[in-house]
UniProtKB/TrEMBL annotation:
Signal peptide: none annotated. GO terms for molecular function: glycosyltransferase activity. Transmembrane segments: none annotated. Keywords: Transferase. The keyword Cell inner membrane does not apply. The keyword Transferase applies. This is Glycosyltransferase involved in cell wall biosynthesis. Residues 186-352 form the Glycosyl transferase family domain. It comes from Deinococcus humi. It comes from the Bacteria. It holds the Pfam family Glyco_transf_4. Residues 26-175 form the Glycosyltransferase subfamily 4-like N-terminal domain.
Length: 387
């Protein structure tokens, strides 16, 4: 028999499940905002990590009253059994899975319990990487509740014949003033990075993987550098393709003006050293780095693909270029270099738009409200069946 409906007087008890729990995971950062900004009289947050969680993240979640459990990751069944114990011991109301593997763990753990599983989809091609995954998901999730981080994610991942409850909830991005470590550096600090104070600096923050499309940016920058001798490029991030991109950069005439800074905790502060932020990835589910750059008052040029046009109104809050089109990217960057007043106008409009659209507390309330609706609907159905 399914559990009784949750009392209106008690906070909803939700467990958010993911594979890693590490600082540089975008999903971990999203969950941290739910935990930090939710209303505690409405939502109790529990975190479950399949991999061993990073100590600093355990400390953070516990500091905001969100208990962390390590489920183990040797098999779906083993993880599910641990999650099932957690559901029972903590009297949890709903499981929120944040990856396909954790979704499968949640489905097995809640089998015959009546507990709903919500799949929060954070990636563009979560389900199209294999036909087997797509088939499994289409059959399992037809009536489950789904959260998408953008309209593009919904279009790309909604199962065929879907009949469940779903919603687009854009991620929240905190403003720079909410953390002293995020305050944009002043240009005088450029010297510490080998950047001339009077340089024009382009920047890109992204993991070095094929779908982030660093080659398009490197080729466009090399062409632009011939017209603008004080143009520099700053790349932040790490990843499997970093060495290949370093090798490509070393073949270019502009190699001495391309800086690979790696993964840095002061990445948001480094945005202050950048004049134009360029985001060339054609496969963004949301575009966290784009919003961070806009909140840092940087004019942005981004690929016209997937979620990025949902963030940027072309010509009003930033510029969009055709994905993988080196010449179009050159034109858009040139437009901002040649017209600094227009670049400043875009930066101002972009910052105002992001402050309006992505504040953390309304985001946490949206998530809470969606989960409350899921549990209420499931409980009502169970009550009707009992009657």
């Amino acid at each position: 028999m399914p559990d009784s409906p949750t009392s209106d007087r008690q906070p909803l008890r939700a467990v958010f499940v993911d594979v890693p729990l590490i600082y540089n995971s975008g999903i971990t950062q999203v969950l941290s905002k739910v935990a930090r900004y939710r209303h505690r009289d409405e939502l109790n947050v529990f975190i479950a990590s399949l991999d061993v969680p990073q100590k600093s993240m355990v400390e953070f979640f516990e500091s905001v009253d969100a208990k962390v459990n390590h489920l183990g990751n040797s098999s779906i069944l083993q993880s599910a059994l641990q999650l099932r114990k957690m559901i029972r011991s903590e009297s949890l109301d709903v499981v929120v899975a944040n990856s396909f593997r954790s979704y499968l763990v949640g489905k097995v753990a809640t089998l015959l319990s009546g507990k709903p599983v919500v799949y929060w989809i954070h990636t563009v091609n979560q389900l199209k990487t294999s036909s087997l995954k797509k088939t499994i998901f289409s059959n399992l999730a037809r009536h489950d509740s789904l959260i998408y981080v953008s309209e593009a994610v919904g279009v790309n991942n909604r199962p065929e014949g879907y009949r469940g409850q779903d919603a687009v909830i854009y991620n929240s991005v905190e403003t720079p003033e909410s953390n002293p470590d995020w305050q944009p550096y002043r240009k005088e600090k450029r010297a510490e990075f080998g950047l001339p104070e009077d340089a024009t600096v382009l920047g890109y923050m992204a993991t070095f993987v094929y779908y982030k499309d660093h080659p398009t940016l490197l080729r466009a920058f090399d062409a632009l550098s011939k017209k603008y001798p004080k143009l520099y490029l700053v790349l932040l991030g790490s990843g499997a393709d970093r060495d290949a991109m370093l090798s490509l950069a070393n073949q270019l005439d502009s190699r001495d003006r391309i800086l690979f800074l790696g993964t840095r905790k002061d990445a948001r502060a480094i945005l202050g050293l950048i004049d134009i932020y360029v985001h060339v990835s054609p496969e963004e589910a949301f575009g966290l780095a784009v919003v961070e750059a806009m909140l840092a008052h940087r004019p942005v040029v981004a690929a016209r693909a997937f979620a990025l046009p949902e963030l940027i109104r072309d010509g009003e809050t930033g510029l969009l270029f055709e994905p993988r089109n080196v010449e179009d990217l050159e034109r858009k960057v040139t437009q901002l270099i040649e017209d600094p007043a227009y670049a400043a106008q875009l930066a101002q409009a972009g910052e105002q738009s992001c402050r309006r659209r992505f504040p953390p507390e309304p985001f946490a309330q949206q998530v809470t409200g969606f989960l409350q609706g899921v549990v209420t609907k499931r409980s009502s159905r169970a009550l009707v069946r009992e009657l």
